[in-house]
Amino acid sequence: MRVxxxxxxxxxxxxxxxAVYGLAAFRVRGEAGGLSKSITPAYxxxxxxxxxxxxxxxxxxxxxxxxxxxxxxxFDDGPHPLSCKSILxxxxxxxxxxxxxxxxxxxxxxxxxxxxxxxxxxxxxxHTYDHVRLSKLTREQVYDQINECDLAVERATGLKMTFxxxxxxxxxxxxxxxxxxxxxxxVHWVIGAKDFIGTVPSDExxxxxxxxxxxxxxxxxxxxxxxxxxxxxILLHDNPVTATALPRLIDAVRQKGFEFKSCKxxxxxLPQHVKIDPNxxxxxxxxxxxSHN
Length: 293
Ligand SMILES: [Zn+2]
Description:
Blueprint lengths: L1 H26 L1 H4 L2 H4 L2 H9 L4 E2 L4 E2 L8 E7 L7 H10 L5 E4 L1 H6 L1 H9 L3 E4 L12 H19 L5 E2 L8 H9 L3 E3 L3 E2 L14 H5 L5 H11 L5 E5 L2 H16 L3 E2 L2 H6 L5 E2 L14 E2 L2
Parallel strand pairs: 2-7, 3-4, 3-9, 3-10, 4-5, 6-7, 8-9
Antiparallel strand pairs: 1-2, 11-12
Helix pairs in contact: 5-12, 7-8, 11-12
Bound molecules: zinc ion.
């Protein structure tokens, strides 16, 4: 009798354990990238150590912590002569920090805009020189794309860039090895606003994207708000549609109780407390990547 009771208790305990684990895995399946990933112990180990947010080996930052209602805002593909100033003026009015992932050739064509971004206290990140898909290039070509963009920003501002984001977020091990060599951190994104559709050359779009209607400022706000979640890195583009949407977008995000932080500040709040200088002087002492826990 006693044995069967013990067995019954053990079975009940195992049953409850499995149910709790299954429920937890089910709850985070979207965030994990599917239920098949969220039920693996490896995922929960990554989650416990913060490696699903920032991977120090790959040097990829995926998102901020889940516990704070904070987001950061990033603008890719600029500086754009028709929208950058308007974006900067909105950010100044509303006291919102941002990170601009600039394209080297755009920097060479508009050096004053990059100077304005830096003078307003925003962060500047590397988005290659020509905005090409790096996954198709040789290692030497990848290096040149990243290095030439670095040099363009150095010429314009005298600053280096720690953050990097590959066009189309496409990267291979070759790209990661150059990121390592150049001492950079790759910044992923969580929320996209599809605000490149109808604003970038159509040869950069996939066939699926070509079927989408051109973006409007209303849609940019709607896409961002419906995907909002703590720790999200928001991907926007430096273009006129997004510049028009920005004041309303900022208000809508704040109305939902979220606060805007810089990428640098959100990285410091990670479990690994990653401390970086996003834009150290080009000829000053090398920055320190301090990661301690
Ligand atoms: Zn881009």
